[in-house]
Every structure is written in C-alpha cells, then in structure tokens.
C-alpha cells in the first residue's frame, strides 16, 4: 500500500510565494489557464511545489503511485490558481501597498527558512528501512490479520434523478474499462462525501452487507478488476461499481502493508526528532525560560 500524502501545507507555500512576489517559477509549459486568461499556472512552479510538499513529508516521489502524484499536482494547480486569483483581487484594492503586507514579507521568509531548517534536520534522522518495517510486522502479526473477507471498490456516484446519465456512463465504462478513473473524477467532483477518484478503503463484507446491501449483492459474482454490469441503487444514490480488490481473511502479506508501516514509523520518528531539535535550538539560544522575561508584557 502506497503512502498517502497530506498536502494542506501547499496552500501556505503558495500564499507565501504570492506574498513575496516570487515569479521565478512562472515559466515553461502552461498547465492551466482560466477562460479569461487572467490566471495561468506553470509546470515549473507546480513541480517546485510538489518537491516542497514531498520534502516536508519526508517522502520520495518513487514511494507514490502515478495516480497519487497526479492527484497532488491537480491539487497544487487548484491552490495556486485560487491564491493567484485572490492576490489579483487584493492588488485591485491596493492591499499590496498596505503595511500588513509590505511589513510581513521578512517574517514570512523567516518562517519558511525555519521550517526548511527543521525539515532538513528531521528528515535525515527519520529514515525508515524495509527491515525496520518488517520488525514491526513480525512483532505485531495480530494487527495485520484480517478477521474476515473484504473488498475494495471504485464508485461513480449519481443522484437518482440522473438515472439516464448513470446508465450511459456504465456503458462507456464497460466499453473503456481503463478509463474508469477518468469517469470517476469527472462525475464524482460535485458529489459530497465521495472521493474524487471513487476508491474506497477495504470494506469487510459483513459491513458492506449491513450498510449497503444492494452493493453487496451486486458484487457477489464479480471478480477483481471487473465492472458490475448494472447501475446499483442504494437509497437516494446510484452507483456504477468496479471491484478493485478481493481480500481473504488471514495474515495480510508484508508487501501490502510495508509502506503503511514505514509511513507510521517515519511520522513517529519525525515527531520525536522535531521535538529534540526544537529543544536543542531553544537551549542553544537561551529561549527555554522566556516566561520570566515576558511576564510584564501586556
């Protein structure tokens, strides 16, 4: 199982780039242009933000699937475009001449430099090997054992009022099964509570049966990699369904959980190393006992 990366930090990085008028990355191929041509997002800046995000997470690009990288890039583009639009509105109101803006750039640069310094220290000391992960796996076999059979699905969701559209998409998906993810991204985008690519976590079959009975019935004879040959109705929703995985109960193979274990170990190590580093810096610069010096500040 590959790592899942949180990319909320990208918004901060993009805002910083705009605030500091940093246009160095705005070159090369245009990956997105708004219909009015006011907003452009360039390949170089997207790759730069992707590198920052991976570095801040302590993860290499090779640890991710191509689909995960694509999702990250799409999120980066959306963040940059929205922040760029907000910056345009700010300039229209001359907020770029406001002291709250002009006198904040040094602080923003310090904050970014401090973050990079911490990451530079932490990442080197928080490396995790396959052997580290195997030791955890072997020592905690019960935690990596399925108690029952499970499935992982990919769903394209429609409202019941869109029955004709759902059936049309089903026909297209069956004719072009390799494009199922593209269909999911297109039609799930506006459906609340559904992941954009439509992929679920592993679902125990008893849970699927109790909560989504019609789905459970529909997939009974469908093999992994196949698409259910009918639109499935559950409550007020219509589902076009692809079975991604069928997993039997018992010990989960190490290779399937290796990356998850490594991510958890890496995060634990990063937290410990970050606290140690921050304490060492506080001690070095005599910042550990600031309360006494600050008690009279109101």
UniProtKB/TrEMBL annotation:
InterPro entries listed in its UniProt record: PPIase_dom_sf, PPIase_PpiC, PrsA_foldase, Trigger_fact/SurA_dom_sf
Highest taxon of the lineage: Bacteria
Class in the EC hierarchy, top level: isomerase
Sorted UniProt keywords: Isomerase, Rotamase, Signal
Signal peptide per UniProt: 1-24
Pfam families (UniProt xref): Rotamase_2
Molecular function GO terms recorded: peptidyl-prolyl cis-trans isomerase activity
Catalytic activity, reaction form: [protein]-peptidylproline (omega=180) = [protein]-peptidylproline (omega=0)
EC number(s) reported in the record: 5.2.1.8
Ranges for domain PpiC: 148-245
PANTHER family associated with the record: FOLDASE PROTEIN PRSA, PEPTIDYLPROLYL ISOMERASE
Protein name (database record): peptidylprolyl isomerase
Species for this entry: Leptotrichia buccalis (strain ATCC 14201 / DSM 1135 / JCM 12969 / NCTC 10249 / C-1013-b)
């Amino acid at each position: 199982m590959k790592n899942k990366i949180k990319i909320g930090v990208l918004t901060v990085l993009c805002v910083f780039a705009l605030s500091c008028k940093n246009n160095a990355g705005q070159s090369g191929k245009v990956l997105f242009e708004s219909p009015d041509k006011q907003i452009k997002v360039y390949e170089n800046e997207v790759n730069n933000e992707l590198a920052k995000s991976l570095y801040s997470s302590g993860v290499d690009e090779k640890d991710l699937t191509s689909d995960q990288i694509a999702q990250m890039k799409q999120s980066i583009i959306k963040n940059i475009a929205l922040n760029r639009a907000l910056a345009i509105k700010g300039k229209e109101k001359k907020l770029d001449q406001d002291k709250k803006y002009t006198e904040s750039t040094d602080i923003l640069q310090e904050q970014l430099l401090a973050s990079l310094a911490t990451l530079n220290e932490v990442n080197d000391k928080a490396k995790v090997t396959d052997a580290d992960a195997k030791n955890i796996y072997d020592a905690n076999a019960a935690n990596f054992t399925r108690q029952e059979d499970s499935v992982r699905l990919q769903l394209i969701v429609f409202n019941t009022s869109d029955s004709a559209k759902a059936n049309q998409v089903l026909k297209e998906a069956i004719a072009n099964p390799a494009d199922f993810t593209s269909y999911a991204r297109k039609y799930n985008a506006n459906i609340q509570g559904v992941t954009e690519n439509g992929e679920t976590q592993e679902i125990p079959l008893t849970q699927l049966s109790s909560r989504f009975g019609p789905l459970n019935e529909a997939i009974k004879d469908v093999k992994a990699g196949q698409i259910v040959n009918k639109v499935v109705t559950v409550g007020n929703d219509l589902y076009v369904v692809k079975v991604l995985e069928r997993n039997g109960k018992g010990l989960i193979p190490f290779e399937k959980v290796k990356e998850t274990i490594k991510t958890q170990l890496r995060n634990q190590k990063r937290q410990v190393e970050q606290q140690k580093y921050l304490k060492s810096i506080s001690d070095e610069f005599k910042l550990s006992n600031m309360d006494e010096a600050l008690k009279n500040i109101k």
